[in-house]
Queue: 4 jobs
Job 1
Amino acid sequence: MRWRSLLAAILIVVGIAAIGLVVLGPVGGATPASQYLTATAARTNVVQSAAATGNIARHATYGLAFGREATVTSGASSSGSTSSSSSAASSGNGTAWLVTTVAVQPGDQVTKGQLLASADDSASRLQLAVTQANLAVAEARLAADQAGATTAEDTAARKSIARANVQLAAARQNWTLSTQQHQLTVSRAQAAVTTATRQLASDQAAKKDAATIATDTAALTTAQQTFETAQLDSSAASNQASASISTAGLQITTAEDARAANSTPAAAAQIDADRMAVSRAATSASSAQTAVAGARLVAPGDGIVVAVNIAAGVNAPSGDAIRIETGPMEVTASFAESDLPTLALNQPATVTVTAVNQDLTGKVSQILPVATSSGTSSVVTYTIVVSLDAAPPDVKSGMSAKVSVATATAANVIALPNNAMVGSKWSNKDLVLDANGQVQLRPVTVRLTTSTLAEIKRGLSEGDQVVTGTATARQNTTTTGGGGIGAFPVGGGGAGGGRNFRPGGGTQP
């Protein structure tokens, strides 16, 4: 409800200092032992709010996998669902990643940059060596075609040769490292075969049951296959890298010979083609370098580990290897479309988490501009995200919460409960009971109203008592306000004197 300027309401005010229940003798048409139920006009903050229910989640959930960048799989603003990126293969570019270390488990708090897990990067290092050698070849070809008698041509060729030599040196270093790692992998696989063979022999000697012998046999078969695969992979990858490095070395020699001979440069079109080849080779080398870095999983930010789907000694499965929740706690709630015009960024909010019996504070951080509807329902809602100022440890992602956003506030004003309001059809006047027990009229102006309070702009003072209803003790009945109060005597003073005002206007004899 918007602020209402000069909204008149009719209140029945008792000019007595007592607070709460006022007991009066017979007044006018009131019966003996009648009691007036009252509310006190007091200073307070009147806050208009929009309310909804929602769920708590971290700002973002990251899926981490070997060989690719961390991806946001879900967050408070995405309804907590996992995106399709989480189903991408964790082995980047089709590479099988043998996990070597896992340093975390679900529930662990982590900091940005912390190492979470690592994998064998020998295969990716060999691929990097190949791409670096190919880049050296492309640079050398460009140098050979650029070589000429002029100073500019000679300088261009010399720079290309220098870049080619740098790439060749890097390729040789990565080839050496990857060869060593492959040898280690083969050694481990061979040791696994030895262990499986001994286990099978031991169980056979002990005459274990058939199920145990079958398990041992299957383990030995798997170990042998892993050993053979490791040997083949090591040999094939090493041979490919070695051949690429040799080709690069020969091409650099050719470029150096062309430069020394001051040969005539190639046509401009050929040089342009060489430059394109260098660009493509550089892109491939960069991707391979990223893949090598992908053998280490590090935390993208401070947060908490929510899932670990890998184990040391086995290849990483498809999908995310590790998932981490990062950022502040947020609440995502669906507000009615009628609330949208009153909602704005940075509005204060109160969040009640029933599961832990706590009220938390926050601010509106996001208002999604697209409406949503549930199923076949015609109810239209808009998604609002509230960022919590602070959340205690016992508040967890997925908990339900009630959200109340303050959309308008009148601070330190005189206010009354809404059940003291009678209506606005009594010509902008209120019924007042003076010190002599006579009901009189007083104009009152209402401004901001909520579901529970009404701001009194003019007409009442702090401490005034306002009648909210009547009660007759002998009949054990009570009549209260809330849209209108029962008949009250006006004027007169004696029993049966005066006339009764009734809600909605008019009088009654």
Note: DSSP finds four helices and 25 strands in the chain.
Job 2
Amino acid sequence: MAFAPDGKTVAAGGVDNRIRVWQVSDQAEEGSNPLLITRFAHDGAILNLEYSRDGQQLVSTAADKTVKVWKAADVTETHLLEPQSDWSPGLTLLDGGVFALGRLDGSLGFYDAATGKVAEMPKPAAPVAMKPKPAAPEITRVEPRGVQSGAETKIKLRGKNLAGITEVKFNLPGLSATVAQDEKGMGAELTVTAKGNVPRTAVEMTVVTANGVSAPQKILVDNLPQMVVAGTKEPLTLDKLPINLWGTLAATGQRDDFKFAAKKDETIVFDLTAKPLESKLVAPRIEVYDAEHKLLAANNGLDGGSDPFLAFTAPRDGNYVVRVLEITLEGSPGHVYRLTAGMLPYVTGWWPLSVPANSEGTIHLVGPNLMADSVTVKAGADGEVPVPQNTADYRTRVRIRVMASNLPESLEQEPNDTPEQAQQLTIPASVNGRLFVPGQPDKADADLYSFDAAQGQQFVIETRASMLGSPADTKIEVLDAKGEPVPQVLLQATKDSYLTLRSADSVSAGIRLGQFREMALNDYMYFNGEVVKIMRLARGPDDDMVFFTRNGTRRAYFNTSAAGHGLDEPCYVVVAKPVGSAIVPNGLPVFTLNYVNDDDSDRELGKDSRLLFTAPAKGKYLVRVSDTRGWSGDRFAYRLIVRPPELDFAATIATKGEPSIAAGSGEQFVVKVDRKDGWEGDVRVDVSGVPAGFFVSSPVVVQAGHLTGTGTIYALPEAKQGAADFKSVKWTATAMIGDKPVTKPLEGPATVAVAPQAKQVIFLEPDIAGKPAGDGKTAPAKPYEVTIAPGDRVSVWLRVDRHGNDGFINLDVENTPHGVIVDSIGLNGVQIRPNENEREVFLSCEKWVPEQDALIHLVTGNARANESTEGLESSFPVWLHIRKLGATTVASAKP
């Protein structure tokens, strides 16, 4: 694994021979770190990856004894090094564009990253007597990392170059500090004064010396006393609560015990903070024991991935012990924590999760020791409603989130656990409920709601829970009036297969399958409850079957949810048939899919649920809401929405910032479509008003059921260097929704820069009598035309005019209609090798592809990529006409 120098991307290599690149964000939420690029890189497992110091290049080594240099921006191969004598797990990039390889046989190799050629071993630099630059202060440890508002708190600093601190800075008013320090500069003691009106919050602190400013340190401000504790064999007695305890699990297997007294029915809260402190604790745990060492309560995390939180209600008067430990038994000076202990009011849940727009609403609070169980909020027209967080009356472990709603709002009315008790809804409806049985907190709850429907009437049924901070992982089911599941479709298996090589997670687009040659594009496949659709066929036994994705994650169909699947798990190609169809047995199973959803099929709602329901007959139907794990409690709030579908789309033009294109070359843009409520039609993007000196692909059609299309912005050879004004260029998206055309304006790039000559220029040319149609050095005055018949294949030429790039060039043909592929490519995709300038490939068209026209183009990129990427170098476009044999081709024909 290697992080790019800018910290915004991370590359990882796997045993599946691929390099994957992810965007790195500062959010710890699903979907915030999307997969950007996947490349089949080597014929063996990846051993090591390293970015160049300028972030422009990426070097990879593999178990096939090969080493490659890649263009980091799009992971395009630039050089394949000479064969290595052994594996090269050792890899480092040196100054001067040279990198070093360390091989298992003990040998070293040095290579020039720009050319891929052998380089001389760098000579050690001659020692130069230099006056050392004064070092800025460095802080390695802060004890404690918290201060008390309205009081003075002693803080010890450890680090380097801390002598001569002249100032301590905070990024929040009301905090100040005086300094006492040692003469060696290895430490200092601060007396921090926080005014009484400083709120409970995290602040940043830096220290200043004559040599510079330290990196900011996070300090937590609280109104509780702060106490630093050291690990002891005997429990430390806490004479007075509440308090903030600062500890470190420094030794392997260390457990910190604290003795406290409590009266019967008192609720003592223990709130452990580790992750916000960037602690090395990975699996902290809180346990409470009685005087006889009997375990009474424990917690590993309030919710998945969070720090432990325990509200302990004493069963009797007496002494108890709370223990802090690391489940993995690891320990180090970096395993720091803060334990907040006392009869403190905490909000751990709330409901409802939505209130009517433009009105006041009451939010009921859930948690221990609360003096008031509700707050009043004022909602605006739309969006999130401001809710007080961490007030003087309560603390919060989860940010309280409430949404304004323009739907009719109601609250769950218990009892509603049986079909006879189902709560009646009038559509459209938004109802807020809780999976909670009063007096029986451990009992699983399921809530039922009823609504009336006409035959064929369509509904969107969805929840909001996890997205708004609730711990509920909802599942929704549609039942008939008797409470029986409503079948959605029959799936008859026609071919069987199984997972090979490795298991599959719930995200990846590619899954390695056995018996892959029996499958076809657009086949639905059934994986133990999940239904997916084949987007690209495996090109051999060492290739994955690639399924349709949305935002880089595998897309599910028929309201099913993506899930993980084990090695050797059976799977099936299936054909969808209406419920009630006569099924001719073929020896393979038939699956009945009911109207059920756990996680939204399109992954827009994270763990929350969504399904599209079509009533099979007139009558009353029920929606059952439950937690997919069977969990419940007073914190398990949800919002159920039942509404008619609102068929619509949104489209965006994605470019890599403001494009910078060499004259005589192009850059790919991507049209991205967000489809709403199951609408799956074509979206056509037209471009007009293009300034002189440029050609822009128009139209670009995002085909039905697809989410992206691509085009090229091409700078003609006569384009003048500098910034070209594209503000007047008109981008519009048009689609037929029902029987009405819907047109929406889009925003394209404001400027396009024309850059100096590139290191290579690429061309896509038709075949004429076994030779390319052009000269491989200039683009035609208007797009070439290529015609292909369904079920046929046609030859085209990929050509490159080199201007300094003498290495391998990976290429792909983009914007081909679904069902048209670059045929017979290898595991490394389509490559033009060093000392070559052209390659003939074949476009193959499936028999079912309808007649249409599309502007296709060539890009520098691996043909095995699962999704299109904006910013790739592109060729001048070519018209691809798909016509049945004997049909007439018209260049201006529109899709």
Note: The CA atoms of residues 81 and 481 lie 69 Å apart.
Job 3
Amino acid sequence: MPSDLVRFEDVELDAQRYSLRRSGRNLKLERIPMELLLLLVERRGLLVTRKEIIEKLWGKDVFLDTDNSINTAIRKIRQALKDDPEQPRFVQTVAGKGYRFIAPIVQVDESTGNGAGGPASFTLQSVTEPDLKPTVPPDLSEPTAPTKTARGTRMSLRLVGGLAMLAVLVAIGAMIYRHYARIWWVREQAVPQIQQLVVNRKPVAAYLLFRQARQMSPDDPSLKRIELLTFWPRQLTTNPPGADVLLRDYNEPKSDFQYLGKTPLQGIRLPHDHYVVQFRKEGYETVESATAASTVSVDLVPSGRLPPRMVRVSGGRVNLGLGGPVENTVGSRFSQQIDDFFIDKYEVTNREFKKFVDAGGYRNPKYWKQPFVDGSHTLSLEQAITRFRDKTDRPGPSTWELGSFPPGQDDYPVGGVSWYEAAAYAEFVGKSLPTVYHWYEAGFARDILYSDILFHSNFSGKGPAPVGSYSGIGPFGTYDMAGNVKEWCFNASGDRRYILGGASTDLSYMYEEPDARPPFERLPTHGIRLAKYLQSEALPEALTAPIPIISRTVDYRKVKPVSDATFRIYQGLYFYDEAPLDARIESEDDTAPDWKKQRVSFNAAYSNERVPAYLFLPKNASPPYQTVVYFPHGAAQIFHSIEDGQFEGVDFLVRAGRAVMFPIYKGSYERQGKIPDAGTIAYREVTIEQAKDLRRAVDYLETRKDIDRNRIAYYAVSWGAELGSIMLAVENRIKVAVLVAGACDTDKELPEVDPMNFAPHVTIPTLMMNGKYDFMDPLDTCQEPLFHVLGTPPRDKRHIVFDSGHAVPDVAKMKEALDWLDRYLGPVK
């Protein structure tokens, strides 16, 4: 086997001992740089790409700023080796690709310390328990047969005694070796890997490795330290006790469940993360729960007592903050106590709803108990029922034909039903439309899974999927409460009814945001999930009463922008000294049919940081390209990469022939940090940094010959649209703007970052597109006041209001945006 000890120049690298020495002196190198150096040396002379480095050092599903981590590791390797990056002797950078180890290597014979004279190759050992078997020294070979002489006999006896003593010493040495080998493995391999697994959000694997390490060295201080810092105490109980507890990572839906023990489990410590936990006990229904809570208590339901395809939800106090912050909610009408209840595990399917249709449900008055109110008119059953027809004028959902759903869609959620049809179906099956309080308790409870559930739910933009086919599970075992189809709730808001959870065609944050639609509306996105209450009596009126949109903390009709002199002071906060960009193209991907994607980076205007960005260049147009700088919606503060479907909804700009610049703004995607609270200095500072990122992105675009610097646009959705007034007032090289589903800020901000103080200084052509029934940016108190104070001449600004909620219709949005860009930038060539 090749040696694990190699030499290059005056440096020795020992893979077995995990050490680096120069002239016998140890060189300090941390774990990640050391593993990277071992990888480069093992692949000497070959290009090792950044992707290969990421997968080798961190794995495929890493949630780190790996680019920065690689750069840091390479810098530390060069510092240790005294390697000049401009004239490298050891590590060569291949721009935009990766790295190559270029120094000659000789294999060292560890027994002599001499080089073997040939190129060395060795394999970096995986992080596993070392071989603890003691090595028998070579001079302990089997003795030859004794002679017949007395002297030979005495020598044999002495030899036997010596061998026995030596055997004892070897055994003791083996025990000592095993002891210290275990300590070494725990401290040098297990603990770092546990930490990395936690960072990579693989908490179950981290727990299993921690448990193994603790068995080997239970009193190790490094284990105790990581236990206190990383592993949180948990308490899992059931009524009755004695249930088997199993769990898996929330973000690893295909992984196996691991057994923890029987309830009650007190003080068990797990990494702080989200898990899916199962409770199994003979004679009782299995309970599945998604949770990150420290305490989980479950009431088990005896077998056969749980309604089919339903789950039990624990009651409690539910506080609503619909449409904005609510002050003093406890004790108010928006804070209500609810009892335990059942709710459908899945959305109602086409197969289930067809039973209602086939049973004559549309003709039977006993199921239609709610008064039919359309504006100021009350309709009779005969009048109303004529509105509930399918595409072929038969009774049924608007998405059906000839009284039935499309072939092969039996298990798809029923869509295209009005609130009245949902309520009638609930009567047919002996259930109820959930109140808003019950829906939010089942979907969120007091253990919100907001960010994680979005990764595993249907916000694909491609329409509904069979129920349960996405792995996004709620805190009580429900599926598809996030996305797929929206779900009607009982409560009214004015002349509308709440419909929650968002649909596959919505932006993902609509899972949390409230929406209310006309009760007669029958869009394909409108579906059903039902509840069943344990009490026979009617719910208290406080739970079923209408819930108005709760007003924002700011009514922008009453806000007056600051003076021009004050604005100029604020504007100065967004300026920066001219400095080199040090721009790099880090990678290219030409596999998409409509564009070439480049990942670039350049120096930020603050804190010695780098700004990553993605530049999408169209294949159906010729340079120099018109370019749209994009600022994304709030999901950028949740998802860790634009690869998670974050370019969908913007790709139409590239398909239409314009380049799209997608900066990774401070606080978004791989640059995420703690989201600062509204109205704080921290929020002000990060907003200013985001504006500087935008301006530096434009600086970069101006350096490229394939970009038309005189035809740059700004396109933003929701969060980016709310910040649009700020961005456009401080960056005068942008020629036209499109703001979608956003206007003013949702909270009261410091004046230096209040969009209303910047809007009068926006003078470029600006198109705003919003929903008339947007709870996040209300039409009268937010959209219209901001549009009114925009400094753009009236002929060059337009506000399109759709009959929708926060998300505007896709096709109309694309048409209007492209028409606006064509009008002010000119057609694409």
Note: The longest strand covers residues 707-717.
Job 4
Amino acid sequence: MAAKETLVDATRSIRGRIMGPRSWPIWELPRWLVAFISLVVLADVVVLAVGASALTVHLRDVALFGGLLACCAVTVELTRRVGENTGFVKDVYATWELPVAILLPLPYAPLLPIIRFALTQWRILKAPVYRRAFSASAIGLSYVAAALVFHALIRLAPGAASDPGRHALVWMLVVAACAAVQWFINQCLVWTAIKGSNPAVSIREEQFAREPVYNDLSELCVAVLVTFCLACSWIALVFAFPFINLLQRSVRHARLLKDSRADSKTGLLNAAAWEHESAVEVARAVRTKTPLAVAMVDIDRFKTINDMYGHLLGDQVLRELARTMTTLLRDYDRVGRFGGEEFSVLLPQTKAVDAFRTAERIRSNIAALSVIAPGAAGGERVHITVSIGVAALDAGDDRTLPDLLAAADAALYRAKRCGRDQVQMISTTRGLSAISSSAGSTSWGANAANAANSANGANGANGADGTNGAEGADGADGADGANGADGDTHDIRPPHEPSVFRRPVTTGPAR
């Protein structure tokens, strides 16, 4: 009986895999993108079929293709040891695939990427089949275009096709032009699909940053060199492989170094990387006597969101906040995930008033967000708010990053105690504090306590200075009591304002 049930379950599993096309991941994409992917794959199949029908097989061509295929397969196995990178993958397979497109008949060009991606799917990581098929087709078509360009241009240099050694300069320039054509077509096809499936992906960061551009240029240059050497002698393949293996390891090392600095859930800088870069910026600001600000951003009632909707939705909230802050900040600002639901932001060359406005812009944009929680009735909208504490380093002041973090954390605690969904700020030299609430009101006081009092009014000094909280149920949250009932860690033991930021209050009109 047990054996029969096992057989039935196995049959259902196989039937579900074979007869469930409606559940394929490709149907989750926009219709135009599904059509685009289908068209690219179909075009690659047609080119391969037409070329194969007119192909005359020569033993020399098969031997060269087999040697390059063997090198490509070994490269796949070396990749398997460290695993395939997630997201946009950088590799060195062009060093084996460009010689196929240039030195062999046309049908070999789209064939090698198909075999390579099949090996990758089998030996490294099982990704959605449509992604592998599209990637193989896009690369195959780009190499077909490179081969056509090569055969068209090489005719303009008499004798270069038959004797590359004597026409090395012209021959290598033509191959380099073909490699550039292949790169351009491949990038256009792949990035059309990537942006169609995920518009939030930044082409500038993933493709045109310094490291990706350097890697692509290095790969194309080595590919041109390997192609030229193979055109002169096949023995070059033996000596080229160790060098290509070293290039692959350097590319992997750069990727691993980048991943070690990033937070896995949000893609922002992790705490260690953010603190290292921020410490350098603070030291530079002190040395050059330029202003700077640090902000601590904490999600309100994040524990409640996790408890009610699950940690998967909590992770989605973290990603949405990271995306929003990255969009609103400048390229040279530093934003990282400090830990849990807390984020840290460094604003170089930013005065106190501008830092406050930036923090308020972040708060208001996040307050306008809503994440859809899955449910039977189409999902429930989960609204998100954050509390932000800002510490501003005025020009000419001498402070360290720990001092700024302590001040920003004290301002964040005060924002939590005074009702959440607001921004509070401490200035390092003038003893000023600014506060902005979700109602849109902003006030500036002569010092931290006065600023908080001006925002809370009837709460009194005890509720505003962050030491005694509010009175019972009428406290900072209005209902949760003095410490809050939502489990926010910032409501448990609010710290005093750091002594390094206490300044004598001078009389004068409030700003």
Note: The chain has 17 helices and nine strands.
